[in-house]
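Task: sequence design from structure.
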């Protein structure tokens, strides 16, 4: 068996982040060597607590956790995502507060620079929150991304279907300037899962209940934090919508999960009245710029569910 790839997860500690993190912890392909926290679903101090709760339920508090950017590039605070709850983790009152003394004292941005220098070319970066930490590091150290093996991003939208504004996806809309800088400056192979593919691959509720029927500490944790978002989704007549989990599945079993991709140039709108934060894709090479990302445009939903089921069965 080939050695595991070293993985850093950059997260804003939301409900879907939790399941995606568990998917990566179960992987025989990746070894999670650090988790960096960024403002997004809640303020960064709350994100830290959320991540520690997620890891505690998986008996993985040995993984180093670092606190990152508390404000967007332009100095704005957290954007409220009511779907995830005020605390960003479903507002579940039954989960005990974690011991934050285990938090690393080194800032997340410094840790990202250090770790890539210690393991040049051997680290994959998985971004499942706003891109503020990554954009900050790219400004601090322009060579940072050249030391990454590759980067995977959940964010953006390629047909202008927004969930945080009329036209923008939450992670990009939380810090459009960071998303813009990332797409303009990143210099490693970069794969992106956007919001449209999440909308297309919602799971029926009988399938969701099949996932949550298994015992175990992790599964009970997921069931608890999902209670309010699931109730709201059912009330809205939505399916069980996945986001970060789709990115995780694409990373874990790309040959099985990914059906179609597009290698294109994309940027982020920073001036539009209604389109601020929207990812803009140059589908027909009108801007004459080299492609900078690979967008996943079609996946195999059955393969996705198989991975989710495997994670549920390993619920500890």
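Answer:
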């Amino acid at each position: 068996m080939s050695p595991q790839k070293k993985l850093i997860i950059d997260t804003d500690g939301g409900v879907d982040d939790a399941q995606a993190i568990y998917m990566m912890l179960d992987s025989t392909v990746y070894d999670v060597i650090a988790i960096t926290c960024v403002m997004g679903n809640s303020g960064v101090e709350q994100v830290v607590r959320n991540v520690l709760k997620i890891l505690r339920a998986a008996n993985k508090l040995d993984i180093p956790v670092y606190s990152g950017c508390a404000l967007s590039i332009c100095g704005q605070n957290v954007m409220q995502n009511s779907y995830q709850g005020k605390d960003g983790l479903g507002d579940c009152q039954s989960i005990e507060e974690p011991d934050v003394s285990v938090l690393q004292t080194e800032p997340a941005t410094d840790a990202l620079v250090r770790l890539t220098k210690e393991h040049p070319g051997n680290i994959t970066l998985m971004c499942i929150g706003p891109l503020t930490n990554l954009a900050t590091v790219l400004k601090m150290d322009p060579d940072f991304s050249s030391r990454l093996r590759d980067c995977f991003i959940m964010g953006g939208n390629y047909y202008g279907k927004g969930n945080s504004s009329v036209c923008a996806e939450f992670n990009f809309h939380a810090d459009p300037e960071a998303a813009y800088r990332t797409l303009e400056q990143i210099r490693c192979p970069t794969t992106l899962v956007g919001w449209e593919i999440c909308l297309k691959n919602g799971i029926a509720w009988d399938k969701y209940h099949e996932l949550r029927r298994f015992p175990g500490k992790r599964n009970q944790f997921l069931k608890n934090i999902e209670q309010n978002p699931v109730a709201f989704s059912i009330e809205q007549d939505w399916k069980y919508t996945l986001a970060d989990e789709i990115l995780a599945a694409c990373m874990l079993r790309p040959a099985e999960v990914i059906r179609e991709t597009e290698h294109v140039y994309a940027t982020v709108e920073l001036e539009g009245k209604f389109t601020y934060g929207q990812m803009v894709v140059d589908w027909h090479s009108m801007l004459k710029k080299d492609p900078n990302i690979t967008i996943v445009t079609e996946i195999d939903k059955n393969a996705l569910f198989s991975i989710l089921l495997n994670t549920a069965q390993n619920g500890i």
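The chain has one domain: 5-313.
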